[in-house]
Amino acid sequence: MISSSNRLVQRLLSAISVCLLAACQQAQTIKAFTEADYRLEGIENVKINGLSLEERAGTGRRLSNQERDDLLAAVATNNLTLDATMLLHVSLREPTGDQTLTITNMKWLILVEGQEALTGNMDQAMVLHDGLNRIPVQSPVQLTEVDGRPNYEGLSRVVNLVSSNGDIRQALTFQIKPTVKTPVGNIESPKFISVSKPRE
């Protein structure tokens, strides 16, 4: 006959085994998504401070001088917001079919010709899976900093790029830094992950 104390020990050991197995599986999932390839397929329904960029692009109307000044002032005072839907394709190197990763927060960074320009933080939960992910984006847009000061040179690069009539995709680099939900708490990626450009 098994004593109640032995039964308690067995239950405790079983619970610990289940927890360790879950932690192991979570660690493998995190590793798989860390090593995955990320490709930005596109961005839809882009609005900056309520101004629809797609609508402007569709009609061929460029920003007026007043609108540009308003946007520049909003960036300089950290009052610029971005609303969009990001189409992010995730390619796991060894997909198992049902792996998902819950992200509680994602920092992002835009570089222009290799130089940091704009940054932001998506403070919302999202679940990534292998394949195409449609991610709603609501994020403040801020200037990056150089030696603790706002990087106005980066902002100038962005404005000049947007004002040009050429294809801006080749000059931009998009990076993400996710915070992942784990059984032991939220863990932030140690570095930014580069997201490749859309296929031509």
Automatic annotation (TrEMBL):
Signal peptide residues on this chain, from the entry's feature table: 1-22
Annotated keywords: Signal
Highest taxon above the source species: Bacteria
Protein name: DUF4292 domain-containing protein
Organism: Pontibacter qinzhouensis
Lineage: Bacteria, Pseudomonadati, Bacteroidota, Cytophagia, Cytophagales
